[in-house]
Amino acid sequence: MDNLYLIATIADQPVAIRAALVESVVDIDHIAPVPLAPPHIAGLAPLRSRVLTIICCERALGLPPTPARRSRIVVVNVDGHHYGLRVGTIEDARVIEDAPAPIRARLDAGWARVALGMLDFGGEALLLVDPQALVAGPDEALAA
């Protein structure tokens, strides 16, 4: 179903992720830091007999992270590897019939790098984000 999206927030911004790219949504209490990892790598966490690399979406956008006791994680598969995208909140999964529209506003560099388009859901503008771009991290992480 190409028009089903997971609605979440990153840095208090409502975003949409194509549900077809989402394996699951989980809460994780403890993330083990990884020494010398790029700043957008929050750490590692166990999930159902596998280890997830946890991505801090805020840091992947070049923003300061928001402290959280418990992490809401969107599990995605990128190039055969499982990653957990740490988001602020998870609202729901929604069917949005209209195709993504081009972005007509000027976005900060981090948002512009991960944005695929805009979706209108009941009058609310949702930024459609690319999980693969979040996993890749900010430009300076790519240069390292």
UniProtKB/TrEMBL annotation:
SMART domains: CheW (SM00260)
Gene Ontology annotations of biological process type: chemotaxis; signal transduction
Classification via InterPro entries: CheW, CheW-like_dom_sf, CheW-lke_dom
SUPFAM superfamilies linked to this entry: CheW-like
PROSITE patterns for the chain: CHEW
GO CC entries: cytosol
Stretches assigned to the CheW-like domain: 2-140
A Pfam family annotated for this UniProt entry: CheW
Full protein name: Chemotaxis protein CheW
Lineage: Bacteria, Pseudomonadati, Pseudomonadota, Alphaproteobacteria, Sphingomonadales
